[in-house]
Design brief:
With 310 residues, the protein is an alpha/beta fold. The chain has a single domain, classed as Alpha-Beta Barrel (TIM Barrel), CATH 3.20.20.100. It has helices spanning 37-49, 65-75, 96-110, 130-143, 156-168, 186-189, 192-199, 236-241, 243-256, 260-269, 283-290, 299-309, and strands spanning 3-5, 12-14, 18-19, 54-56, 82-87, 115-120, 146-152, 173-179, 202-206, 274-276. Residues 19-22, 56, 121, 152-153, 177, 206-212, 215, 217, 224, 261, 277-281, 285, 288-289 line the site of NADP nicotinamide-adenine-dinucleotide phosphate (NAP).
Length: 310
């Protein structure tokens, strides 16, 4: 698996990461019913065996359980693993200490002294200014508890502001983690992707499989169970609408001896400065997602997929 630098000068991570929102999450993903610790441990092991060593988590996943599980699995492997986690700017967190305390708690759950990447989960910091927030994160880089600083769900303007505030402290903004997939292309037209490239900020693409829509597993006759069934994109009409994209993914998957999910992730990884972080609940999914890289769609196929899903 190739590696990529986070931002212009940040740490180097695998060109595809694994998202761990579903590890411990009972509200959206049905952890504990459809799958549990054994399956997500196997997903971790399969990812690492396939050469994927970059994992994305957050304090709110589980809540806390995703970080705890990841920390436990990391302790049991000899392979160096890179961890990205996230700070939740909640209304009652209005001092620098509340940011540092949240990081302390994340590090405890992860059983680590430092994380590769610490991201602000969303742009609304309520009673804390972005200046205070970014200054505190820069202080934590100085203390050595964070290697690189990132943001998530920031617009182009919000990202520019975070970049400017961190730059004053000599700390580069390494990433903006945003929703990006063949079916979610807003960052291409709202200026976020363009601004990230201009600033040298890496895009971590979350929900890169559009929460399962791009795997071809769900059809109008076989929608998912759980909360996704209330999402209009997973309704009969929604699934019918994306049929041409799924059909092209299937066609290309057949040509390359891959799966539709691997083709969708390969398309995303082909976009400059973008790292996909697909979620995986099982060894099979982790292994399959790792196999999304290491081969290439042709430039014409990349264009065709882009056109079909526009
Ligand atoms: N920053 C943010 O605000 C934010 C928001 C959302 C997510 N994220 C991050 O991004 C990561 C990924 O996003 P996501 O979980 O929303 O969506 P995703 O990666 O698009 O989809 C993940 C889901 O797709 C299915 N799947 C995954 N690999 C598959 C494969 N190879 N074959 C068939 N099905 C497969 C699984 O669900 P089923 O098996 O149940 O279909 C899995 O839970 C999260 O884990 C999290 O780290 C961040």
């Amino acid at each position: 698996m190739g590696t990529v630098t986070l931002g212009k000068t940040g740490p180097s991570v695998t060109a595809l990461g694994i998202g761990t929102w579903a590890w411990g999450d009972k509200l959206f993903w049905n952890y504990g019913k459809d799958y549990g610790e054994t399956q997500v441990r196997e997903a971790f092991e399969a990812a690492v065996s396939a050469g994927v060593t970059f994992f994305d988590t957050a304090e709110v996943y589980g809540p806390g359980e995703s970080e705890r599980l990841l920390g436990k699995f990391i302790k049991q492997t000899s392979v160096p693993v890179r961890v990205a986690t996230k700070y939740g700017p909640l209304p009652w967190r209005n001092t620098c200490e509340s940011v540092s305390d949240a990081l302390t708690e994340s590090l405890k759950r992860l059983q680590l002294d430092r994380v590769t990447l610490y991201q602000v989960h969303w742009p609304f910091a309520f009673f804390m200014s972005q200046e205070t927030l970014m200054n505190t994160l820069a202080d934590e880089v100085g203390r050595g508890r964070i290697e690189a600083v990132g943001v998530s769900n920031y617009s182009a303007a919000q990202m520019r502001e975070a970049h400017r505030l961190l730059e004053k402290r000599g700390v580069p903004l390494a990433v903006n983690q945003v929703r990006y997939s063949l079916l979610d292309r807003q960052i291409e037209s709202n200026g976020t992707l363009q601004a990230a490239r201009e600033l040298g900020v890496t895009i971590l693409a979350y929900s890169p499989l559009a929460q399962g829509l791009l795997t071809g597993r769900y059809t109008p006759d076989s929608p998912p169970a759980g909360p996704r069934q209330w999402d209009s994109r997973f309704s009969r009409a929604g699934l019918q609408k994306i049929e041409p994209v799924v059909s092209l993914l299937r066609q290309l998957a057949e040509k390359y001896g891959r799966t539709p999910a691997q083709v969708a992730l390969n398309w995303l990884a082909a976009q400059e400065g973008v790292i996909p972080i697909p979620g995986a609940k099982t060894a099979k999914q982790a292994q399959e997602n790792a196999g999304a890289l290491g081969w290439e769609l042709s430039p014409q196929e990349i264009l065709r997929l882009g056109e079909a899903s526009r």
